[in-house]
């Protein structure tokens, strides 16, 4: 219970920082921090496998992909974001309140009793590894190729075309 009480406010602050940062790269780094803190929470609560998967997949791959894509596509949009932010706050709150209501309802309906250790299903990690890297290997490779293609397409789509910088002397 103590790790939850310590890490939950930090996760919340990092997530709020990801929402409120004006620069997209800083927001992506705050998102990576919040994902890393969630992984630390999993590890502290004894869910070692899901904690390591959280680090490897979300922090190691997705967050780095987001930061990389932001670095190669856009820059200088901070002024537009700061001007747009007050207008989008109301819309964001309207969209997030139903989600918060559903989450609170689900949390209130769950049982607080801790299940016994022997009733939990055991997942043999060796079997999971063999299945992932033999039977499902083509799917994993296909997703990797698809994500690479999407990344290249996003970079090409966001690239500014037809605009050349103006010289100060008018040439």
Give the SSE map.
Blueprint: H1 2-20, H2 24-44, H3 48-73, H4 78-109, H5 125-135, H6 137-158
Helix pairs in contact: 1-2, 2-3, 3-6
Please tell me about this protein's structure.
Among the domains are: 1-78, NADH-ubiquinone/plastoquinone oxidoreductase chain 6, subunit NuoJ (Four Helix Bundle (Hemerythrin (Met), subunit A)); 125-162. It has 6 helices and no strands. It has helices at residues 2-20, 24-44, 48-73, 78-109, 125-135, 137-158. The chain is globular. The model has no long low-confidence stretch (mean pLDDT 75).
Write down the secondary-structure element order.
HHHHHH
Described by strand count, sense and barrel closure, the largest sheet is:
none
Shape: globular
> What percent of residues adopt helix (DSSP H or I)?
over 70%
Low-pLDDT stretches are none
Give me the CATH superfamily of the domain at 1-78. NADH-ubiquinone/plastoquinone oxidoreductase chain 6, subunit NuoJ
First-to-last CA distance: 67 Å
Q: Could you please say which CATH topology of the domain at 1-78 applies here?
A: Four Helix Bundle (Hemerythrin (Met), subunit A)
DSSP helical segment count: 6
Q: What is the average per-residue confidence, as pLDDT, rounded to a whole number?
A: 75
CATH class of the domain at 1-78: Mainly Alpha
Q: Strand content of the residues, in percent?
A: under 5%
CATH architecture of the domain at 1-78: Up-down Bundle
